[in-house]
Amino acid sequence: MKKTTKNVFKYLLEFLIVAFGVFLGIYVSEQENKKKIKGEREKSVNYILEELNDNKNSLEKSISYHQLIKIQIDSIVPTFNEKDLYEAYWGNKKFKHNQIVGWNGIRLANLEDTAFEGAKISGIIQGYNIELIHNISKIYNQQKKYTEFGTSIFNKMININSSTKIIDIFSSIKLITTDLLLNEKQLLDNIKKAENNIKTVRNNN
User: Are 158 and 37 in contact (CB under 8 A)?
Assistant: First the structure.
């Protein structure tokens, strides 16, 4: 009886040792996996912050350029009378938009979204704090709208034809130096706020 009891305790002890070893292995593996996922999330957020910073710099350059063009176009428009404005753009000798001092095309800010899209595709963004997801998604949606608006102006400028009037060109350039410029300034301000919000949420997690 004593021998049987000893065998039972022996097997029970061996079972507990094996079970504990398995449990410990699973626990360590889970902790390492959590640590890895957390590291990937932090890395992803840092990539997004770097991307937003690059986009911010691109916007600042675009704003400076469009402010320069605004000064030039605001000084040119008053020199035209109503008859001049409704003349065909092609063939007129008084105004060519590419002769505006400093003109170098429409010059939209080059706004990247690679880091954000990568976070979505990989599924990493699913583990972000809900406030962080909101802040990041909101700013990238605003960037997308800016690009779409700028592209619509660009398309108007490249579709110049024989029926295009001087006033049509002025209107397009005015859009660049008013609505688009205002959009850029607002977007730049929102990116700065988003950066601060993202950093605050990241540091609190």
Answer: no
